Amino acid sequence: MKFVPMWLGFFVALIFIAGIVVDGQGKTQTFQQALTVAQSAARAGTNAATGTSVNGDAFDLSIPAAVAAAENYITSAGATGNVTVTGNEVFVTVDMAYTPRILWMIGSLPVQATGSAALIDN
Q1: Which of these, 3, 18, 87, 103, is most buried using a 10 Å CB contact count?
Q2: Distance CA 30, CA 23 (A)
Q3: Of 50, 87, 92, nearest in space to 67 by CA
Q4: What three-state secondary structure class fits 10?
Q5: Domains held by the chain: number
């Protein structure tokens, strides 16, 4: 019976370490997903360019169309975020949350990622 507290402490420490490994990996995967959504939404925003390359005209970025396209992409991915357009660049910040599987008692962990895309004209 005198080894029960030692084994109990060992078991709690093992669960804690497993939680750090598993939930740390889960948060990293959620960050990667948020980053992919942010970069893809920014690219979707740059697709809202107007102009024709046939005549050698430069493409211009339609700011309302770029914001709408990026926001639609974020919404369709099941995330939330902000879109800003500066010049010919679209910046997207995506917010997601990871709910730990083992260390559930710490609550949901916020994840934020930022992506950008630029419309390149020749």
Answers
A1: 103
A2: 10
A3: 92
A4: helix
A5: 1
Three-state DSSP state, 37: helix
pLDDT category, 87, cuts 50, 70, 90? confident
Contact 51, 60 (CB under 8 A): yes
Spatial distance between the Cα atoms of 80 and 73, rounded to a whole number of angstroms: 10
Contact 49, 62 (CB under 8 A): yes
The b/e string for 63-100 (b: 16+ C-beta within 10 A; e otherwise) is beebbebbbebbeebebebebebeebbbbbbbebebeb
Q: Average pLDDT for residues 73-83, to the nearest whole number?
A: 95
